[in-house]
Write a structure and sequence with these properties.
The chain is of the alpha/beta class. It has a single domain, classed as 3-Layer(aba) Sandwich (Rossmann fold). The strands form two sheets. A five-stranded parallel beta sheet has the order 2-6-1-7-8. A three-stranded antiparallel beta sheet has the order 3-4-5, with no helix packed on it. It is globular. The two termini are about 20 Å apart.
Length: about 220
């Protein structure tokens, strides 16, 4: 069966918009598979750090993307990610790795290396694809495309609360600046920039609860079924 016959729901948007949490909620509710494409780019960034490779050196980063030794294991409400047999579930969520992911994702060779790996996630009964170019480049034939966004300030506050809960100390001002810098880089990269697909439904979650966003997304999916 081709990917065109498998229901794929794409959820794109900037960092901190809540798409990761909502994608997991939808996948559990619908019984679909889940693709966290951002994790793949974070893994490339982490692997580059481990190999002492500069994020800017595309000629060295591309082979890392081509040969990622990765395993995803989902149990209950949590997902474990292994890189070369090592549990890096928490390591890839570090702020520095997130910024690195944005840098390596700007390389055309890296995106090409990961494209087919991402498309292979489309399996029955369906897939929730979370990322930044799921609806524009990876699954352009998807019937249900969602672009989830929120103000930089709202996204920074959410990230601040997450880090605070982990005992990490960060400055709100720095988080806002980092988010804006990442938005700028992601939206202006030459290959697969972060933009809504022409036929995507845009949801601004700035003043919405996660339950309200979830209900809106679920209604849209059912409407397109």
């Amino acid at each position: 069966m081709s990917n065109n016959q498998i229901r794929v729901v794409t959820i794109d948007g900037p960092s901190g918009s809540g798409k990761g949490t909502l994608s997991q909620m939808l996948a559990r509710h619908l019984g679909y598979h889940l693709l966290d494409s951002g994790a793949l780019y974070r893994l490339v960034a982490l692997a580059s750090v481990k190999r002492h490779v500069d994020f800017a050196r595309e000629e060295f980063v591309v082979p890392i993307a081509q040969n990622l030794n990765v395993e995803f294991s989902v149990e209950g409400n949590s997902m474990q990610i292994l890189l070369d047999g090592e549990d890096v579930t928490n390591a890839i969520r570090q702020e520095a790795i997130g910024m690195g992911a944005s840098q390596v994702a700007a390389h055309p060779g890296v995106r090409a290396a990961l494209l087919e790996r991402q498309r292979a996630f489309a399996r029955l009964p369906g897939l929730i694809a979370d990322g930044r170019d799921m609806g524009t480049a990876v699954f352009p034939e998807s019937v249900t495309k969602i672009f989830l966004t929120a103000s930089a300030e709202a996204r920074a506050e959410r990230r601040f609360n997450q880090l605070k809960a982990k005992g990490e100390i960060v400055e709100m001002e720095n988080l806002v600046a980092d988010i804006r810098e990442r938005d700028e880089r992601d939206s202006k990269r030459a290959v697969s920039p972060l933009v809504p697909a022409a036929d995507a439904t845009i949801i601004d979650s700035t003043d919405m609860s996660i339950e309200e966003v979830f209900a809106s997304m679920l209604a849209l999916i059912k409407q397109n079924s």
